[in-house]
Each structure stands twice: as C-alpha cells, then as structure tokens.
Design brief:
alpha+beta; six-stranded mixed β-barrel; 27 helices
C-alpha cells in the first residue's frame, strides 16, 4: 500500500500542523452542510451570554457615569429619626453646596376626605436638586411649584397619584395638619433611584410644608438626607473617611457617587448573574448539538478517514485535521454569537429610554464579549473532543465495513476523557469566578451536571422499558417500541437535547406560579389586613381604642419600633468582613429594631434562653437564626448598633426561628427592654380581622386616616399587588431567557433527528421492500417520537417540580403549588416538538429510492 512519507516538511510538529491545515481547508470546500445546527447552537449560547453581560455592564457603567446625578450629590449623608446636629451641619456646609431632604411614608387625603392613599413623601429645600433637573408638566420654576400661596403650600406628584385619587392639577391634598396644592405632574425626579424601591407614589413638597403638617415628631420614622456638591479637587472617599473620624457616633450612612444606588446595582448584578447561568445552560444544551453534529459529520467522512489511515496517516493526524475544522467552524459560530450580543446594549438603550433613570451607552463592551467567546471555545472543545477521540482510534478496516463511529467497540482513550473533564472544569471555574454569588453558581452548575447524568439514565430507562415491553400486535406500535431500544436509536439524543430545556422552563413556570398563588391567595389569607406605622407613644392607647370600635372582631398587635444601623460585630467594622450575599442586606443601611419582654409571636427559640421580663443588666439582643448563620454569629457575640446617634453594644442572648412568610411583625434584632430606656420612638401595629371585607377595610382606612393623619396605614393587599406586578415583570424576563435554552434544545433535537436520518432511510427502504406502507411507517415514527417526547416531558415535570420545591420551600419557606397549566404546556411542547420535527424529517426520507440504499446496505 502507498504510504504518506514523513518528509522534512511534515516531520516537525509545525509541518504536521500545516499539512493538517491544508487538508482541513480542502475538506471544507463542500460547504457547511450538516453544521447549520452546530453553528446555531454555538451562536445562540454565546449571544445569550454576551448580550446579558453586555447589557448589565451598560447599566452599571451608566450608574457609575451618572453617579452624582443619581445620588443627587457627590456624597450623601443619611440620618434616621433625627436631623444633623449643629456641629455636623457646620462640617457639611464646609464641604461645599448642601441640600437637605426628608423622606417618610404618610397618608394623603383628598380635600373632601372622600378617599386617601399612601404616599412616599419627600420634602426638599431651596438648594435641591444639586445635579440633574426636576421635570414637571406644566414646566414651572421652583417657587411656582412649592412656595406658599395664601394658606396652601405647593406640591407635585406623578400621574399615578392623580389617577389613584381622581384629582387634577390645582386640587388639594390633606397631609397631617396641613393642606398642599397639586400644581403640576411630576415627570422626572433626578435622584429617585438613590432613594430605593417605593411601594407608593411619590409626593414632592417643600421643607416648610413638611413642618406645617406636624408629621415629624420625636421618634418619627423620617430619613434625612444631606447631599453635598464637592469642589472638583475633593475626593469623596477622603471626605467620607474624615467624616467617620470626626463623628464616630453619628450613625449616618454615607454614600458616594461611586456607589450612588447600591440596591439598583446589586439587583442588576444578581439578575445578570442569573441570566448568565441561563445562557450557560443554553450553551450546554447546544453542546449536545455540537457533539451530535461532529459525530454525524465524522460518520459521513469515514471513507475519507479510512483512506487517510491506509495512506499512512496516523490517528493523531486524523484527530488534528478534524479538530482544526471543528475549531474553525466553532470560531464562525462564536463570531455570529458575538455579533448578535454586541448590539444588545444598543437595543437595550433604545428600549429603556424613559424607563431607566439614566441614559445607557449605545456601545459594546469588550469584557462581556471576551467572556462569552471563552465560554464558546471551551464548550466546543468539551463536546467535540470525545467524538474526535473515537475517530482517532477506529481502525481503517472497520470504517471500510461501514461501522458507525458511535458503535465502535473500542473505548475512548483516557487522555481524551481527561481532556474533556478538564474543559468541563474550566467552564465551571470560569462561571463561578465571574459570579457575584459563587454559592448560587456552584449549586446551579452542580444541578446542570446532575441533570445531564440523570437524563442519560432516563434515556437508558426508557430504552430498557421498551425492550422489556410486551409484544404488541399493532404493527406501527411494535415498530415504534422496537425503534426506541434498537442500536443507534434516537432515544438518548431526544431525551438529552429536549429534557434540559423543558426542565428549566417547567421549573421557572412552577416557581412563578407558586409565587403568584402565594401573593394573590395564601399570603393575603394569613397576612394582617393592615400595617400601621409611626404611631406616637402619646396616642398608642387612644389608637387601640379606636381600632377596637372599628373592628371589634379584629386583633391588634402593637410593638415599639426604632431604626438602627449595625456599626460593629464583635468590635469589627462590618464593611471589612467577608459576608455571604445572603447576609449582606442585614448590614446594608438602617434596620427596624424593637425591644420586648417576652418572645414575639411567629417565632421560636432555636438556641439560648430568653431574658427575664424585669431584666436590668447589660443590654441583650435576640438575633434571627437564619441571618445570624449568614453572618457567622454565635451565642455570646456582641453587636453594636447606632440608634439616634448613640452607640449601643448588646450581647447575643439567643437565636430565633422567624416565620417571615406570615407577614406579621418580625424583626432581625429584638433587644431587652432596658436597652432603650428613655429613647424616643414610635410604635408599629398590625390588625388582623378575618371578618373584614373590602368595604369594611375601606371604612377603617378612611376613618383612621381622618382621625390620625400622622399615622401611616398600609393595606397589605395593596402592597402585595405591587409585589405581584414586579414579580410578573421579572417572571416575563426570566421566561424569555429560559426560552433561549428551549430554542437551543429544539435546535439540538432537529440536529439529532437529521443525523439519524441516514440510518432511518436505510431502515425505511428495507421495510418498504418487505411490504410496509408509507402510512404504516409514518404511524410507527409518530408513535415512537410521541412516546419519547412524553417520557421526556414526564421527567422534565418531575425534575422541574423538584427544583421549584427546593427554591420555594427551602429558600423562600413558602408552599409549592403544582400548576396544571404548566403540566399541560410542558407535555404539549414536548409532543409537538418531537413529533413535529421527527415527522418533518422522516417524510422526506420515505420518498428515497430503494436501489441506492439497498446497494449501500
């Protein structure tokens, strides 16, 4: 036989690579036939990762760029329940131009007292805003908007409040002891994003108007903000350090323009991380399509491979030739994905105009594109190396006999298995290292790997059941069952390709459905009817008596409430601690705190002991057990909180398991009563009245709003409606992202079915020669695809329900509900996709001529 000579040009590794490159280019002259699914799978996964990270980077860059406008200053000092002292104000005034705002929740009544609504009241001074511009319709200057005219101060509000109360510009609202005149519709509040999420419409007025309302009393839950425009040469970080050094017990929260809206930034990061993992799932599902495409392509090239080996080509040479081809095709798919992902920030900037507080950059970002490209390369290598390893070691004689690569007797060399494992580890490490919450990333990747293993087991189980099934008398059914378990069956490809996408879609749909059911049904049934905030100590008894008259069958629970910020744990500054993401919210900003003689309702001790009712020793604190575990706390540790500018250190006496899902009054920290002796504070209350319908609730709300205008009343069902809308918006976005994974699954399925058409065509010709009709074969194939699709749907529902149960029951501690609509939709998608794609491909091969196929067989 003729042999390939090892000339000087091919003796070196570089020479062999150059020869492999030339062979690869020659092999690809036939075009991209058979690789369309390969390219689509890689492109979709890469595009999803690039787009999500690009849009996330665009948002965070915009926040950083417009930090001063979002924050309302170069630096912001926040104080709860008190204004800055004279010394503190002198310090602030010395930094630059200062504006003072005050924010609180309050009830606003129509002037005729016919209706009322909860509002997020914000009072501003003459210097506000330092950055950005206030937008109103009609456009008026500050004096026309807020100045006192006659006996009324001015105010502005968004259209939502006008619609809620049926008001028009020029009409009035009652706020506490005063009335304000609505002089314009609020269209833009420059520093809104820095104030965090609000459950009620904004109402802007002046500091003078706030003083006239009488809403601010000692202990009232008011947040005072002092925003400073620094000189150009001032460093906000140095100013912050100086403020903390000069006033160590001020208890103010300090934010700079570099961290203008931490809540918004954190939400963007979390959402980006989640969608990146979903995109990685799409890429992983697409990887199955890569493996199928490579396997089918090499199967079609078995004659070429046999010839190369007979001419002296080594297995390594064959591996190199086709690895070069796969990498070139992979690069093309990655390039398509990057092109699609690169335009995502521009599209997002257009779509979010008027929705996001700042304009997004219409550009592309290199880092997200590089990350997506790296994921794409690793995915190609991971899923292509095993089929290539099989091609390397199949002998030429087996190839000439028509042995399919997937049925080769020899196993894959350990080196290729190790290489595939190494690429898988690299993908996992890259996903974890680039995640904000590495624990979530690890859990997600572990679930993904487990799903692949389980799906392989499901495919094996379906084939095993089909093999042991009773002999059916119905010919199409008998053929369908035989096709499910025969060598080279499509069972594994269909289950693996479609199962993961359906599982992801089912789990997200079940989580969304459970949350909606809880918020719209079960939570309102268990939750209080009302929350009452800012009850003054002087009116606690009178308020309780009024509620008892209005709701004699109701239960009123009242507890004292203060605001405090954790400034030290065991003497250490929390900002220097490495805290898991699940516990960071406890340390972020001020928290509601209380004191109690006895263990609160909806709580139980999990460790330690409760203090005596007459405890008079050192301050003690009870900490919520779950949050304490996140912070690494143990009994005997100390927690320092700043309350009204005073540092208080308390020892952890016990831990409590808190039933947060009850929506009753619960606090992370409950102190012994002697801790806050003499401190001014307000009270918080809940009312539970199972006999109160919507009409009675409206009567209670209206009467209390008129009798106690300073008390903020929150109707729980209204708050849950807001949450439900937010969850609906997030759920839509997440379902769209999960749909990307499902699209990848469908593409992989199409590729797997197309790859199996070669063997299926030969079988169909033989069966037709033996007397089978086209109708019989179509019936058999429809039953085969239907049975496999149904088995995949059953697994997807079971796995999706298990994932949804873990998230809802274990993480959110709510009740999981099995949604019949999700079940039906999942089954229908599985059947329509598998049967539809299967029959679409099969119809063409049934018309193939018999003679060529029989000669090849």
């Amino acid at each position: 036989a003729c042999r390939m000579s090892a000339t000087s040009s091919t003796a070196t590794p570089f020479g062999r690579l150059a020869l492999a490159w030339r062979f690869s280019l020659r092999e690809m002259r036939g075009g991209l036939s058979g690789f369309r699914v390969f390219l689509a799978c890689i492109a979709i996964g890469v595009a999803a990762i690039a787009a999500v990270n690009g849009v996330g980077r665009s948002i965070t860059t915009a926040i950083e760029r417009e930090g001063a406008s979002i924050l309302g200053g170069d630096i912001r000092f926040e104080l709860n329940q008190r204004e800055a002292t004279a010394d503190e104000r002198v310090f602030l005034d010395g930094l630059g131009r200062v504006t003072h705002t005050a924010g609180l929740r309050s009830m606003a009544l129509r002037a005729d007292e016919a209706d009322q609504a909860l509002v997020e009241l914000k009072a501003v001074d003459a210097a506000w805003p330092l950055y950005g511009a206030l937008g109103t319709e009609p456009a008026l200057d500050r004096a026309a908007l807020f100045a006192q005219s006659g006996e009324y101060f001015g105010a502005v509000a968004p259209q939502a409040l006008f619609d809620r109360l049926g008001l028009a510009v020029g009409e009035r609202l009652k706020l506490g002891n005063a009335e304000v005149e609505l002089r314009a519709v609020l269209t833009n509040e420059p520093d809104l994003a820095s104030d965090g999420f609000g459950f009620a419409p904004r109402l802007l007025t002046s500091m003078e108007a706030l003083a006239a309302t009488g809403l601010v009393q000692p202990g009232s839950l008011v947040e005072h903000g002092y925003k400073v425009a620094l000189s150009p040469d001032a460093n906000p970080a140095n100013v912050r350090a100086d403020a903390e050094t000069r006033f160590p017990e001020a208890g103010w929260g300090i934010r700079t323009r570099d961290n203008a809206s931490p809540a918004l930034s954190n939400n963007v990061e979390r959402f980006t991380q989640f969608l990146t993992l979903v995109g990685l799932s799409a890429l992983a599902v697409g990887g199955v399509g890569v493996a199928n495409a490579v396997r089918a392509y090499l199967d079609g090239k078995r004659g070429v491979i046999a010839t190369l080996k007979c001419l002296g080509g080594s297995g390594g040479f064959v591996f190199t030739v086709y690895m070069v081809q796969i990498l070139m095709l992979g690069a093309l798919g990655i390039a398509i994905g990057l092109a699609l992902g690169a335009v995502a920030p521009t599209l997002a900037a257009f779509a979010l105009q008027g929705v996001f507080p700042v304009a997004l950059e219409e550009t592309f970002f290199v880092a997200p594109l590089a990350l997506a490209a790296l994921f794409g390369v690793l995915c190609v290598l991971l899923f292509a190396i095993l089929p290539l390893g099989q091609a390397r070691d199949v002998p030429a004689t087996a190839l000439f006999r028509g042995d399919v690569l997937g049925t080769a007797k020899r196993g894959i060399r350990p080196v290729y298995i190790a290489a595939a494992a190494a690429f898988g580890v690299m993908i996992a490490a890259l996903a974890v290292l680039t995640s904000d919450d590495r624990r979530i990333a690890l859990t997600f990747l572990g679930g993904l790997a487990f799903a692949f293993i389980v799906l392989r087991g499901v495919a094996w189980g379906v084939a095993a059941v089909a093999k042991r099934a009773p002999h059916a008398r119905h010919v199409p059914l008998r053929l369908a069952v035989a096709n499910i378990h025969r060598p080279g069956a499509l069972t594994a490809s269909v289950v693996l390709s479609l199962g993961l996408g359906l599982t992801l879609l089912a789990s997200i749909a079940l989580i969304d459905g459970s949350l909606r059911a809880q918020i719209s049904g079960q939570l309102p049934e268990r939750a209080p009817n009302f929350f009452f905030v800012d009850i003054r100590s002087s009116e606690v008894d009178a308020f309780a008596a009024t509620v008892a008259e209005l709701a004699p069958s109701g239960k009123l629970v009242q507890v004292p409430m203060l605001r405090g910020r954790i400034t030290a744990i065991n003497g250490q500054d929390p900002s220097t601690m490495d805290v898991p993401p699940g516990g960071r919210w406890v340390l972020r900003g001020d928290r509601g705190i209380t004191y109690a003689k006895t263990l609160p309702e909806n709580s139980r001790l999990s460790a330690g002991a409760w203090w005596p009712a007459d405890h008079s020793g050192k301050p003690l604190v009870s900490f919520a057990a779950e949050e304490a575990a996140e912070l690494g706390l143990k009994l005997g540790d100390t927690v320092t909180v700043n309350v009204l500018g005073r540092e208080i250190t308390a020892e952890i006496s016990n831990f409590r398991e808190v039933a947060w899902e009850s929506l009753s009054i619960n606090f992370v920290m409950v102190f012994s009563p002697n801790t806050f002796a003499g401190a001014p504070h307000s009270w918080l209350a809940t009312l539970v009245d199972s006999e109160a319908d919507a009409t009675k609730e409206a009567q209670i709300l209206n009467t209390l709003a008129r009798t106690y205008p300073n008390i903020t009343t929150v109707r729980v069902k209204d708050a849950l409606d807001v949450v439900n809308r937010v969850i609906g918006q997030l759920g839509t976005a997440i379902r769209v992202a999960a749909g990307v994974a499902l699209v990848a699954s469908v593409l992989v399925l199409a590729g797997a079915l197309a790859a199996g058409n070669r063997a299926r065509q030969r079988d169909a010709v033989i069966l037709k020669t033996l007397g089978a009709t086209r109708r019989t074969l179509m019936g058999a194939y429809a039953l085969e695809y239907g049975l496999i699709g149904l088995a995949t749907a059953v697994f997807a529902l079971a796995a999706g329900y298990a994932a949804a149960w873990y998230v809802i029951d274990r993480i959110m501690t709510l009740e999981t509900r099995f949604d019949a609509g999700t079940v039906t939709l999942t089954v229908l998608i599985a059947l329509v996709v598998t049967v539809g794609f299967g029959l679409a491909g099969t119809w063409r091969i049934l018309g193939a001529r018999a003679a060529p196929a029989l000669r090849e067989a």
